[in-house]
Design brief:
CATH superfamily of the largest domain: HAD superfamily/HAD-like
Number of domains: 2
Distance between the termini: 19 Å
Shape: globular
CATH topology of the largest domain: Rossmann fold
Number of strands: 6
Helix content: 40-55%
Number of helices: 10
Strand order of the largest sheet: 3-2-1-4-5-6
Strand content: 5-15%
Largest sheet: 6 strands, parallel
Length: about 230
């Protein structure tokens, strides 16, 4: 049974923990170029936060087989990881909030559409592995955001009721996933991929420029609000 007396915070990665958007964009542009296909800023904004297989299936013609899509996704992520290994920093306010939540005994998990290898690399580079009790990645789900599966799986791994979970997100699809899963949500607009008004319309309980503006009291206040 879920622990109804425990609160949890579930973190998206790209655009929330770290700003690796340009690394992802460059990797997509490189892959698209090899395929003789375009990949624009508009394409990137429209698909940010979605799973690789969904992006490839939606943007690149002709249609590829499932095996080909998987291979293309692996190639794109190798380009991304090679760039990320040169150095990635946590976004403003992230480390202090992670550490304070951990000290206050909030359970914390990663809930991301990214492949597990990407997540492990980011946690290692930022030295934050010890602050998370669970990691949910692309490999753990069948449906991408705005489907709430990734966050619901994280809540189950933490043994916390969805209603006692708060999601940290930066994308409209992620906010929608949190709301659909019956969770609270704080949206971070630092990366600028989604306007603040759209994040609010998607259901974010609070929208901030960065997490320097969020403390334990803020997290607890939102979690104690009635409803999802």
């Amino acid at each position: 049974m879920p622990d109804l007396h425990t609160y949890a915070v579930i973190w998206d990665v790209d655009g929330t923990l770290v700003d690796t958007a340009e690394l992802h964009f460059a990797a997509w542009v490189k892959l698209a170029g090899e395929l003789g296909k375009p990949f624009t800023r508009a394409d990137f904004a429209a698909t940010f936060g979605r799973r690789n297989r969904e992006i490839i299936g939606a943007l690149f013609e002709p249609r590829y087989s499932d095996n080909e899509i998987a291979e293309l996704g692996v190639r794109k992520e190798e380009y991304y990881k090679a760039a990320a290994r040169k150095g990635v920093d946590l976004l403003p306010g992230v480390r202090p909030l992670l550490e304070r939540l951990h000290a206050a005994r909030f359970k914390q998990a990663i809930g991301s559409s990214a492949p597990r290898g990407n997540i492990d690399l980011i946690l290692s580079l930022t030295r934050t592995e010890q602050l998370f009790e669970a990691v949910v990645s692309e490999e753990d789900t069948q449906h991408g955001k705005p489907d709430p599966q990734v966050f619901l799986v994280a809540a189950k791994k933490l043994n916390v009721s969805p209603g006692n979970c708060l999601v940290m997100e930066d994308a409209v699809a992620g906010v929608q996933a949190a709301k659909s899963g019956g969770m609270k949500c704080i949206a971070v607009s630092f990366s600028g991929h989604h306007p603040e008004v759209r994040l609010r319309e998607a259901g974010a309980h609070l929208v901030v420029k960065n997490l320097e503006h969020v403390d334990i009291a803020t997290v607890r206040r939102i979690l104690e609000q009635p409803g999802g």
